[in-house]
Amino acid sequence: MLKAENITKRYGFQTAVDDISITISDDSVTVIVGESGSGKSTLARMLSYIERPDTGRILLDGTSIGRRTAKATRRNVQLVMQDAASSLDPHQTAEQVLDEPLKLLLKMGRPQRRERISELTDMVHFPRDRLKNKVSELSGGQQKRLCIARALAAEPQHIIFDESFSGLDVTLRKQILSMLKELRKKLHISFLIITHDLDTAMYMADRIYVMRFGKVIETLERPTSFLDLKEDYSKELVKAAEYKRQALYI
Amino acid sequence: MTGKILRKPQAVIGLLMMLAVMIAVIYAPHLAPNDPNKVNIMIKFAEPSQQYPLGTDDMGRCIASRLIYGARISMSIALPTIAAIAVISVLLATVCAYIGGIVDKMFVIISNIFMALPPFLVAMTLVGIFESKALSIVVSIVIAMWVWNAQVVRTYVLREKSKPYIITCRMSGCSEIRIIMKHIIPNIFPHLLVLYSTGLSGVIIMISSYAFLGMGLETGTAEWGAMLVNANKLIFSHPELILYPGLCILFAAAGFNLFGEALRDICDPREG
Fold this sequence. Notes:
The complex is a heterodimer. Chain A is of the alpha/beta class. Chain A has one domain (2-85, 158-249): P-loop containing nucleotide triphosphate hydrolases (Rossmann fold, 3-Layer(aba) Sandwich). Chain A has 8 helices and 10 strands. Chain A has helices spanning 40-47, 70-76, 94-104, 110-123, 140-153, 170-187, 198-204, 232-249, and strands spanning 2-11, 14-24, 29-33, 55-60, 63-64, 77-80, 158-162, 190-195, 207-212, 215-221. The longest helix of chain A is centred in the last third of the chain and has 18 residues, at 170-187. Chain B is an all-alpha fold. Chain B has one domain: MetI-like (MetI-like fold, Orthogonal Bundle). The interface between A and B is medium-sized, with 28 and 17 residues.
C-alpha cells in the first residue's frame, strides 16, 4: 500500500500540494482528476520519490520511503510520464530502454534479461522486430507501449501514470486502457492515474480523488456514474466534459 | 555509421580534406621532395620545377617540403591542445552543471573571471612560461580557451539535465554517474564533436597567429604560421609565399569544420 500522509509542497510562495492525505491500495486503480495547476503532477512526483514533500510523509507498506534506498523505492513504485517521446533517451534502442531496469534494479543476467524483454514486449503488444530501433524511430503508440513495458520491467507494486494518456488518439487510448485493465488483473499491481479526462477516470477507477488548488476536495469510492460526484467543482468538471463531448460530436 | 558518412557529401569532402592533412602529418618524410630546412641562397625564389614543385623561398628552401612538414608541426601542437581543452572542459563543466547548486555557482564565478580576460592576452602573457616553446604554446592556449569551451558544454549539460528522460533513467535505477556517462554525454556528443572540430581549426589559426606576432616557434621553423611571417615582407614581390601557407591553414581548418558539422547531423537523431 502506498500512502501519503499530510504532505505539502511549496515552490516559493506558491503551494502546489496542500496537506494532502491519500491511499493507493494494492491491486486497485486510483484516479486523481482536476484541472491544470491543481497539483496532480506534483503529487505524482512526490509519490514516485522524484521530489520530497516539505512536510508530511509517504509510506510504502508502512515504511517511510525516505528510509528506503532510492533503488528499493523504484523497485516498488514506477512512473510513466505524459510525453513518451521526451521521456525516453533518444539515443537508446527500445531494447536498451527495457534492459536498463532489468539490469540495474533486478540484477538479472544477460540471458534472463533477453527472455524477460521478450515477455514484456508481448505483454504490451510491442512489435519485437522494433526492439533494435532507436526510440526516436518508433511511432507515438509504440513509444507509449515501450514506456509502460519499461515501468513493468521493474515488477513494481504500483505504477503512476502522470497524464500518460492525454495526446493519444481515441482508438489508441482505448487500446492502451484496455491493455492496462488486462495487465492489472494478470499482474495484481495497482495503478495511480493522474488525468483531467473524466471518461478515462470513470472507465478505470476503483477510487477517484478530485483535486483543486492543491487540495483533495472529494473522494469517490467504486464510482458507477458521474452523478455520484457531490461537490460543486466536481459537477462543474462533469459539465465541462459534457460540453467537450457535445462539441466533438457536433 | 560509415554508410551514413559516405552518403553525406559534406562529410566525405571534410573527411578527404582531414585525411589529406593527416597523410601529410604521418608521411611527411616520404612525401616531401626535399629537406625543408636546407638553405641554398643560390636558388632563392626559384620558379616551380620538377625538383621544387612550388619553387623556393627567399632562403632557397623548398616551399612544398616546408608546407608538408608544416602540417606535421601545426597538428602536433594543435591536436594535444584541443585534446587537453576537451578533457578539462567536459570533465569540469559536466560535473559542475550536473551537481548544480553551490558547485555550479562557483564554476560560473570562476568562469566569468577567466572570461573577463581576452584569450589572446592570456595566451600572450603565458606563452613564455616554459623553456619549450611548443609546450608554452599548448599550455597558454589551454588556459586561455578551456573556459570558453566549458561554458558551452555546461549549457548543453544543463539543457540535457532538464529533459524528462533523465527522470525515466532514475526510475530505471541509473546512478548519477551512469546518467552522466551513458545518457548525458552520448546525447551531447554530436554537439561536442562540432565544438572541438571547429575548435581545432581555431587552435590551428591561433598557433599560426602566435608565429605571426613573433611569439610562436623559432624563426625559420617549417610551420604554417611562421611561414606566413617570413613571407610578410615579400607580399608585393612574391605574394605566392604568403598565399601557400594561408591556403594550407584554410584547408585544414575547413576540413575539420566540414567534417564536424556533417558528423553532428549524422549523430543527432533529432536532426538526422
